[in-house]
Amino acid sequence: MAKARFKVMGALDGAAGVRSGTVIIERDCGLFHVRPARRRRLYTMPLSMVADMVCKRIILNELHEKKAAKKAKRKVRG
Question: How large is the average pLDDT for residues 26-38?
Fold first, then answer.
């Protein structure tokens, strides 16, 4: 089983502040696991769901940037 492990920083378990954790990607099974540091809980979801979430977030950010640029352009004009 091919596994890739990464150390990450972020608000992983909803606790206040930034904490470290481990991301494990199982390529053969198509699973994505996150384990916050010093926690027993392992959060798991399919890689396809992670890819969908990333794409949606990027699309929303691009729409917000486009809307902000349009608003700034209108503000300059009048």
Answer: 93
Number of folded domains that form the chain: 1
Question: 17 in helix, strand or coil?
Answer: coil
Q: Which domain holds residue 22?
A: 3-77
Spatial neighbors of 30 by CB under 8 A, at least 6 apart, are 46, 47, 48
Average pLDDT, the chain: 90
> Of 1-5, 30-34, 52-56, where does mean pLDDT reach its minimum?
1-5
Looking at the DSSP assignment, which residues form a beta bridge with residue 52?
Answer: none
Q: What is the mean pLDDT of residues 48-71?
A: 95
Indicate if the pLDDT at residue 15 is higher than 70: no
Determine the 3-state secondary structure of 77 from DSSP. Answer: helix
**Cα(58)–Cα(15) distance, integer angstroms:** 24
Please give the structure tokens belonging to residue 16.
């206040």
- Please give the structure tokens belonging to residue 7: 């150390």
